[in-house]
Every structure is written in C-alpha cells, then in structure tokens.
Amino acid sequence: MKKDFPFQEIDPDGPRVAVRFDGAVYDLPEGANLAAALLVAGVRAFRATPISGAPRAPFCMMGACYDCLVRIDGVVRQACMTRVQAGMEIERAPAREVPHG
C-alpha cells in the first residue's frame, strides 16, 4: 500500500487474485469492489473525459456518476459496480466509448 495515498484495505490478509490494468499486474482482494481495490493499489485515473481528455476516477462509488468506467475483458463497465475476479483484463475506457449527455 502506498503511504501517501488515503485509501486502505479492509482485510489485507484475505485471498488475493491477479488482474491486469493497462498492462500492469495487480494482486487485488478477491471479491472486493473493483474501484475501491484499484484505488487502494494506487490507480489514480480510470478514464479520460471525452471532451477535454481530463483524467477521471471514482466519485460516487454507487453507480450514479460513471466516472469509474473501465473496459473489462472488452466490455465497458462501471468499476464501482464490479467485483474483483481472477484474470480480469482491465483497461482505461476509451473516451469515444464513454457515454455522455
């Protein structure tokens, strides 16, 4: 865990699984909320805005804001509404696939 980052794991001794985020491998708590687990791991930007390209990360953590969109195994999803599973291939959601309106 990064000491300069405010997020902490609830159960640091629980089972962990490997996932890949933008090519980097992370050992995350199995079954944890994906957005929370990535924040604890130090991921600070999940996607970029479609207009300005500004970085975005989870905001509401309850599925209302869509700032945590990522592409998981080829499908754009909200990280805050997804549980960590072994072998996930996660990428930042391309701006052209991010719904806006």
From TrEMBL:
A GO molecular function held by the record: iron-sulfur cluster binding
Keywords in alphabetical order: Oxidoreductase
Oxidoreductase as UniProt keyword: yes
One Pfam family recorded for the sequence: Fer2_4
Annotated InterPro entries: 2Fe-2S-bd_N, 2Fe-2S_ferredoxin-like_sf
Name this polypeptide is given: 2Fe-2S iron-sulfur cluster protein
The species this protein was found in: Rhodovulum imhoffii
